[in-house]
Write a structure and sequence with these properties.
With about 250 residues, the protein is an all-alpha fold. The chain is built from 10 helices and no strands.
Length: about 250
């Protein structure tokens, strides 16, 4: 109970719970819409989804400052690739949150002259760039872990045999796809934070892909992706050790 209270006392914790509720409503609404006699339930889910989405805006007003702080921290990463990817990703997150705040200002009636579609498109574009760069960082980290796993396995096989097997993921004489997938599985299994971050970013990117028309999805896919991403986010907020660290 104490852990739950500490979690909900955090702005990010409350936002993750609201986000999970929002995408759960979207997913359930998609599943129930084709069914007869579910019109009232669908309408209630739609209203709840809208209310939760509006409520999340209050939690996200301070996210610009959090994104600026994250940008300052990522500049000091020692590895060039993560430093470049994370810095650019966080810059795009800053722009995304600025656009999101402007859309919120329009939605509450503080400024009526704002072009909603233009700012929504800009927000989606910079959110997409941020997630794309974050995924690039994840892929880089995965490649490092797979390289290390392949090196460790080669050393073990060499120690077990006088005649080295010369194991390599890319060896054409082996089942390269099977070897690749095995290394990928072992690498992610040994590094749960990397797995969580990759899953989260992959699920998140489905929404801007749909908004920008790059890859159209239905509300069910977006709702499921958002729910999975929210659960991953809840885990990282509740247990900071599961958050992927910079190095």
């Amino acid at each position: 109970m104490d852990g739950f209270i500490r979690f909900t006392n955090q702005t990010q914790g409350r936002d993750r719970l609201f986000r999970a509720t929002q995408y759960t409503c979207m997913l359930l609404r998609y599943l129930l819409e084709p069914k007869a006699g579910k019109e009232k339930v669908v309408m209630k889910l739609k209203k709840l989804e809208s209310s939760v989405s509006t409520g999340r805006k209050w939690f996200r007003l301070g996210n610009v400052l959090h994104a600026v702080q994250a940008t300052q921290q990522s500049v000091h990463a020692t590895d060039l690739v993560p430093r470049l990817c994370l810095t650019l990703a966080n810059v795009n997150r800053v722009i995304y949150f600025v656009c999101d705040t402007i859309l919120w200002v329009r939605s509450v009636g503080l400024a009526s002259g704002i072009n909603k579609e233009k700012w929504r498109l800009w927000a989606a574009r910079h959110y997409y760039y941020s997630l794309l760069l974050s995924l690039a960082r994840d892929l880089y980290e995965i490649s490092l872990q797979m390289e290390q796993a392949a090196h460790d396995r080669a050393k073990r096989e060499k120690s077990l045999s006088q005649e080295p097997l010369g194991y390599s993921v890319a060896d054409e004489e082996t089942e390269w796809l099977q070897s690749f997938l095995l290394l990928l599985f072992r690498s992610l299994k040994k590094h749960p934070p990397l797995l969580l971050d990759t899953v989260k970013n992959f699920c998140d990117i489905l929404n801007p892909l749909d908004q920008l028309g790059i890859y159209k999805s239905n509300p069910g896919i977006i709702g499921l992706g958002g729910l999975v991403s929210s659960i991953a986010g809840i885990i990282t907020v509740a247990n900071p050790q599961m958050k992927l660290k910079m190095h």
